[in-house]
Amino acid sequence: MQFVRKLLEKYIGNTVVFNGPRATAFFARNPKLEFLNNVTNLAPMMKWSLSIVPISQIISGTKPPQTIDLAQASSLCATGTVWTYYATLIQPQNNGTRLLAICNGAMAMCHGYNIYRKTTHERSIKNPLHVNTTAVATD
């Protein structure tokens, strides 16, 4: 365990993501993009991509339920649930912890809905619904 601690020691408390000479020069030339070089800004943006893509696919209908990977959706739903709960335990609460909870809650909900879509689709294939036999009156 000491080996791992020693290996990661230089990263403890470091919020800078890219600190090489090229990255430093790039962010010096583009100060408006410098917020991307901070882990507290970059991590939530990356996390939101795990929610925004499936939400857009659900809304647009481009991802049919038969193509949903149940294992992936389940793991992302579980991760979102756990981290939503964890974000509510962090003290003191601030906007960052609230946004963390919202981001992970969105991830849990959209992947939970994909699980629902997949299981409903599989159930309808195994047990097709009976055709509505109610007669429609025609003249």
UniProtKB/TrEMBL annotation:
<dbReference type="GO" id="GO:0006850">
    <property type="term" value="P:pyruvate import into mitochondria"/>
</dbReference>
<dbReference type="Pfam" id="PF03650">
    <property type="entry name" value="MPC"/>
</dbReference>
<dbReference type="InterPro" id="IPR005336">
    <property type="entry name" value="MPC"/>
</dbReference>
<comment type="function">
    <text>Mediates the uptake of pyruvate into mitochondria.</text>
</comment>
<keyword id="KW-0813">Transport</keyword>
<protein>
    <recommendedName>
        <fullName>Mitochondrial pyruvate carrier</fullName>
    </recommendedName>
</protein>
<comment type="similarity">
    <text>Belongs to the mitochondrial pyruvate carrier (MPC) (TC 2.A.105) family.</text>
</comment>
<keyword id="KW-0472">Membrane</keyword>
<keyword id="KW-1133">Transmembrane helix</keyword>
<dbReference type="GO" id="GO:0005743">
    <property type="term" value="C:mitochondrial inner membrane"/>
</dbReference>
<keyword id="KW-0496">Mitochondrion</keyword>
<keyword id="KW-0812">Transmembrane</keyword>
<keyword id="KW-0999">Mitochondrion inner membrane</keyword>
